[in-house]
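Sample entry (231 residues):
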Amino acid sequence: MLFYYHFFSIPLFGGGNIKYNQKKYEKISFRKKKQKPFLYSDKKKSIKNHFLYSDKKKSIKNHFLYSDKKKSIKNHFLYSDKKKSIKNHYPILDNKLLFKKKTDSIIQIAKDYIDTPYKYGGTNKKGIDCSAFIKNIFYSHKILLPRVSYHQAKKGFFVPKKKIEKGDLLFFATGISKKINHVGMVIHVENHKSIFFIHASTSNGVTISQLYQKYWNNKFITARRILQLSK
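Predicted structure, serialized as tokens:
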């Protein structure tokens, strides 16, 4: 509340002054601005916004948790796949090692026949022909081949000349016709122009020759692979 007063005089008839003093009080009040009442609807909105904010926080938190979980699962499977890959890699190496040992073993058995005389129809070290020689050395590792070179050429699978490797069989036609009648086994490959094979020759018995010698290169028909890397 604020109070104030003032004096004033009223002159009469231009003569003497009759002083009239009046003390007047005026009351001035300043009203406070009424605050808007806290309505029930506002309260509802406030509560609603509170829960919305809480839900939003939970949503964000769950999003990151879900993302982390996805990453964790993804990394788990990547790690599992990596372990499987490493695990699967070693059997392949083991198979390659066993394959090499088998090939080297067959070649060594073949070399043990060197200087064995040639004998048509022969099957042992007293005398042996080309197809019996190949049949015997593969049989030492329980690999069965036909007795005749022409039928042996139907076993395994075709190998291009540039892909020939140790252990492959080479087939020739040494007669007038182009029918296969001779066989040998590759024992050494330096490059594709230096391939050595062991066979039972009619003139020299069991011996080692080179594929790219003029005679054998002209008589060559095909190469077949009997030994295969197991998967």
